[in-house]
Structures are given as C-alpha cells and as structure tokens.
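Need tokens for this chain, all 375 residues.
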Amino acid sequence: MRKKIAVIFGGRSVESDISVISAMQALFAIDKKRFIVEPIYLFEGEFFAKDVDDLKAFSNFSKREHKRLVLLNGEFFTLRMRRLKKYFHPDAALVCCHGGEGENGTLQAMLEFNNVPYTSAPVTASAIAMDKVATKRFLQALDIDMLDFEVVKAEEFEKDEDGALERLKRLSYPLIVKPASLGSSIGISAARDEEELKFALNVAKKFDKKMIVEHLLENCVEINCAAIKRGEEIIPSCTERPCASGSFLSFEDKYMSENAKTDSKHTIPAGVDWAEESVKAITKKIYSELEMRGVIRVDFLADEKKKRLYVNEINTVPGSLAFYLFEPMGMNFSNLLTTLVDEARCDDSNVFRLFKTQVLAHFQKGSKGSKYRPK
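Here are the structure tokens for all 375 residues:
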C-alpha cells in the first residue's frame, strides 16, 4: 500500500521562495509508485493545499484561491465557514522549508505534537543549527575549529554604537557580519574598516535582533558536505566547492546568477585533497552529536595556506535537499527521498510518551496532601 506523504514548504522566511523550488524538485522526483504526495504550502503561519504546477502562483500568493488547512490529531482538515472536513492523513511529512518556522524547530514541534514523522532534524538540533551563535557554542563544546566571533544584539548597537564597536576591535579586519538566524547569505556584509562595519551592522539588524561578527577569512576555499542516516549508518555525501564571485558566497551567487542555473555554480568533488576526509569525518561527528535526522549539509571554510578547516554553519534543510551531492555516489534524488521517508517512519524518537502516576488519585483520597496550597 502506498504511503501518504505531506510535502511541506514555504513559511515566514526570506528563503521561502527557495523552498518552493526545492519542493517542486522533490515532488517531481519522488517515487509515485510508493507514495501518494500532497503539497502543503505554509504561508503566514497557516497551511494551504496548493497545486505547485504553476510557479507563478507563488510570486503573488492569494489565500482566497486555495484551501486553508488545519493540522489536528495528525490529520489535515480543510477549514471553511468554521467547519472542519477531513482532507489528508499523512504517514510522514517531507519537510522542504528553508529558514523561519519551517527549519528552526517550530514546525518540527508541531509535527511531533501531532505524532507525524518528519524527514528533517529534530526540534533541539533544528533550533541549535538555525541560530549561528548557538551553533558556535555547540562547536566549541565539541572542540571543532571555527572562526573567532563576537555577538552584537541589535538593541545594544542602537543604544550604544560606540561601545559595540569598541568591543569588536579585538577582531582583526576584514570582518564579516551576519544575522544570527538567517540563511542563504541574506543580510550578510563584509567590512574592511569601521565605517563599513557600521553599515554592515545596520544592514544585519534589519533582518535579526542578534548579529554575529567574525574575521573574514580571505583567499579561502568553501567546501560543503551533506549527510544522511540509513539504519545505524551515517552516510556522508560527496564534497562540493561552491563558486563565489566575491569574498563570500552571496545570495546572488547561489540563486540569481547565470551560473546558479547550471552545474558550473559548484565543483563536485571539491578537489581539496588534504581536507576531503576531515570534512566527511567532521560532518559525521556533527550529525551524530546533534542526533540529527534527515539530510543536513555542513559548510566549511578551508585555509589552504595553513591547511586548517573551520566549520562555517550547519543547514538542517539544505537547498534541493542536497540531492546533487549524493548522485555521484549512485543515489539519485528519488532514492534519496525514499531513504529520508523510510528513516523518518522508522525513527520513533519523536513519538509522544506519557508517564502516568498515582499522584492525583493520592490527593483525592483525603491524605494530608489534599490540604496542599500553593506557596
């Protein structure tokens, strides 16, 4: 019997448009002989049933033209005139959301609450990976190399700009400023002096209430590596070397350039022989220590002169679900999706368990505890 899969995409995120593309790729590739799929679009905090054949529908999405859905007790219902009607009962959710509540653990928590298995990282891992500061703290605890950093809160910068800039002087220029909880290089700027740093901080704070400032490692090589889990085995992907037009990989490099439409936007494998095995080993370690699920992608910076690797960030729902990094290993996108769904359905770690006690019965029997009053 074919299993029912809800492909969830969209969300309140600057990467929402990218998630539409990932979802369409997945819907095209998924094995229709094994799965019945239902596209579920997450828009402004609500679910909608939406046929994704027409990309134009998402450029100016209208709620009125589509069915509003409610997730209740593990099943999607249509909501019309305050009436609920059964619509789709998924056996699992294929999460294609990038950023926002679709990747930071919020959607994952909702799915867990409804006992719906899902293909992305669990709640805690999602929340940590989404927050670049939390990621740094996690990497520090594992003694994994990363670039030195400082954290600047938007409120702090607005109240005491000079104080914030003074604190950042311990980091040597050039610097790179990033919103703490965004992806796809949005809101990121490089700074080579104090004036550029002020500008970069003012840009980043428009996107997030917390910013991270690091030394900008120039003349380095970016290397990405994905990983999935099959049974007890963590499988790292091939490595890739993204092609940047400037000192870091921008949003335009990733999605808006001519190269973004072709395979020329990256080199697979990365071709940095001295780093190849270390990249895969660290990716596996991060996957294991964060108790990941689904497909993740870890992004590295490689200093070729010093032969040192630094973890840059962790993506728990990478663009296109990183299928292209597994294809050279003989795993096409369809097989990858089947593996992700099967693993989600076999993993019972998100199944809600209730531990029942006799405490209330004890209080009802008139014991001294029945006179309990809150302090």
